[in-house]
Amino acid sequence: MLAALRRTIEWTGQYAYCFLHHNPNLRDELFTTSYVVPQPLLAAIRVVVFVYCLSVLVANLVVNIMHEAGWSWPAYFTTLTYLGITMYYGFAAFNTCQYTLVYGLRNRRRIHTSMVSHPIQIPLEQFRQRTLGLGIDHSSASPPELTPEPKGYVANATSQPQSPAGWPDNASIPATLAQPSSTLHQLALATQWLLYETFTCYAPLVSLIYWGFLYPSSGGFYERIDTWMGTSMHATNTALMLLEVLLFSRCPYRWTHFTVVISVLASYLVLVYFMVGVYDFYVYPFFDARFFGGYVAIICLLVADIVGLVWVVLLMVHRWRDTKYPKWTQE
What we know:
Blueprint: H1 2-21, H2 28-32, H3 39-66, H4 77-105, H5 113-116, H6 124-132, H7 183-218, H8 224-248, H9 258-279, H10 289-292, H11 295-330
Helix pairs in contact: 1-6, 3-4, 3-8, 4-7, 7-8, 7-11, 9-11
Transmembrane segments: 43-66, 86-105, 193-215, 227-248, 260-282, 294-317
Pfam families: Far-17a_AIG1
Subcellular location: Endomembrane system
């Protein structure tokens, strides 16, 4: 039993390490650069948007507390998705500013992409011995196969990438580039990736449900601050999604990650009925089976279908963007 648990922990650690450090999609430039927007401007835009989203979120919380509704504030899907948007722009702003400072301001000369596109790798066996504290047991289950290392990876942290002819030598590269990419840094990129996919997929859903079903029965906005918060959380979110997908971001979209999106929706459904069981409070009226009966299940399936449709459309848009934009920018 202990041996099986040990092998499971070791395999999980190896898989997480391989995903973070040998994943060709977790490269800095995919999360911190744009096809059309200069990087310093992109960093400034993301900082401004993060501050704006955080202001909206805090104002919404304060207003709910003033109306004695702070206890239900975290249960709304709009609140949770807008929190995800704020977190996304927080990670995106941090990673983009860090990338700009390291690769831009500290090194005025151009660096070949094969030298900066990929983190320098630490050997997997060294990771297993030093980080996991486990010896190499060849009788255990085989670790997942590593993704083939793209051009620019080096075998270990002591070797240096060779400069192509005509490009600056390694002495001109900032010291931070000569160090192995830290697990925390790769984890920050992975978190930004996850938040990006959920944010871009949920934003149209929130706007559609609110303006199509909830707003007509709410009687509209009563005060200016309600108008500001309502439009920011139910309309600006989709506008930011479109700008991020079409202009600001180069994040990849992977169809296999759709399971994460559906899992988040299922978890939210559990939260909804937790609120019913504990507080006898329905976050949204269409979850109330006393009035909608069996239609609640149909509504849940309809929401899942809408999310699936949005995911497929965004997947095609990302493939079109990643194919066409590089050609247009090189012309």
